[in-house]
Amino acid sequence: MLLLDEMIEYNKKFVENKEYEKYRTSKLPNKKLVVVSCMDTRLTELLPKAMNLRNGDAKILKTAGAVVSHPFGSIMRSIIVAIYELNAHEVCVVGHHDCGMVHINPDETTRKMISRGISEQTISTLDYAGINLNDWLRGFDSVAENVRQSVGVIRRHPLIPQEIPVHGLVIDPETGELDVIENGYTGSITS
What is the pLDDT of residues 168-180, one digit of tens each? Predict the structure, then answer.
């Protein structure tokens, strides 16, 4: 059975059995929190449990490496919407140990694109248009430093109110242990 067919078949039973009822909540985050985390599959259930977050407690944004790289990209837009339209009062960036973005090789990723049918002409056209794939795909060397940089992008954003605490954490994807890298209440680096 194809994955989509499997999901739809399961969904029909899910709706039929009213399993959705235990997940009902408001669109506003109960804990008034926005979490930016990595898309790593190990964090799907572990991260909310380790942070004591239930369905409806937080707006959770997922991106490769928990990177907030552009002050006017979609992650920042989502944070700003959560603050102004959805009553979020705090932001937390959560990176994790053993992140796949550490030491990612943009050249190797580009080779994989070409091997899967993306033409070298397309790659060249992007470069000609000013999109440097090596910069765009580049990872980072330190998870903690990446968290600090992402926290800094959010804190320095001209549309983020000064009173919004922006925290930086690193989670262990095996145990769920959280290390505080940046304390948004004090603005201090703690690790």
Answer: 999 999 999 999 9
Please check whether residues 52 and 118 belong to one and the same domain.
no
Q: Are residues 89 and 163 in the same domain?
A: yes
In the numeric block, the tokens 């899910």 are attached to 14
**Is residue 179 domain-shared with residue 119, that is, in the same domain?**
no
Query: Which residues contribute to the annotated binding site?
Result: 38, 40, 96, 99
Contact between 148 and 181 under an 8 Å Cβ cutoff? The reply is yes
- Residues contributing to the annotated binding site for Zn(2+): 38, 40, 96, 99
- Per the structure, the complete domain to which residue 72 belongs is given by 29-102+141-189
**Mind listing the pLDDT tens digit for each residue in 84-140?**
999 999 999 999 999 999 989 999 999 999 999 999 999 999 988 889 998 899 999
